[in-house]
Design goal:
Number of strands: 12
Structural class: alpha+beta
Radius of gyration: 22 Å
Mean pLDDT: 84
Strand content: 35-45%
Largest sheet: 8 strands, antiparallel
Number of helices: 3
CATH topology: Umud Fragment, subunit A
Shape: elongated
CATH superfamily: Umud Fragment, subunit A
Order of helices and strands: HEEHEEEEEEEHEEE
CATH class: Mainly Beta
Oligomer: single chain
Number of domains: 1
């Protein structure tokens, strides 16, 4: 006895499930590449990003366009806390010369529109090699950034922050 057309109905149902699975995998891959939700932990990017804010990071944007001054990026670092992801702002790009002298920042001889002070720090100079970036936290006093771990290679940059979708107001970078 055949129920609802028997084998034909079962084949159509299996085919439909297979297509749905393939679509789900494609959507997952696209979201993984283009929209990676990340929760902000800590105050090193305050006031731009605050503890508990949520942002979308695009892993794919780094492949289709160059990172530039001011971009918010997610990087993976290894420090005394361990291996972790952090979000920082790009202050200097490959070829730049960045100098921090008593809080005054100059990039390629041009005075930056921000000060970068931290207790006990006098003067730092970085000449960025090919594919290296100098990253800073917006909350300069309480940020672990390139002053601590040095410039990072492009391969360490995991993606660009696209926008904040929870916490504060909706903003696009």
């Amino acid at each position: 006895m055949k129920i609802f057309g028997g084998d034909l109905v079962i084949r159509e149902h299996v085919k439909s499930l297979g297509q749905s699975f393939i679509y789900a995998v494609i959507v997952f891959i696209l979201l993984y590449i283009f929209l990676w939700p990340v929760r902000i932990v800590g105050v090193s990017m305050s006031p731009t990003l605050n503890d508990g804010d949520r942002v979308f990071v695009s892993r794919g944007m780094g492949f289709v366009s160059e990172y530039t001054h001011g971009d918010l990026v997610m990087v993976r670092i290894n420090d005394d806390i361990g291996s972790r992801y952090i979000i920082k702002r790009i202050a200097a790009v490959p070829g730049d010369v960045l100098i921090i002298d008593n809080g005054q920042v100059t990039i390629n001889g041009v005075i930056a529109p921000f000060r970068y002070e931290r207790h006990g720090e006098d003067s730092l100079r970085f000449e960025l090699y090919q594919d290296h970036y100098f990253l800073i936290g917006d909350n300069h006093t309480f940020s672990t950034d390139s002053r601590d771990f040095g410039p990072l290679h492009r391969n360490d940059l995991r993606g660009r922050v696209l926008f904040r979708f929870m916490g504060g107001s909706f903003t696009i970078n």
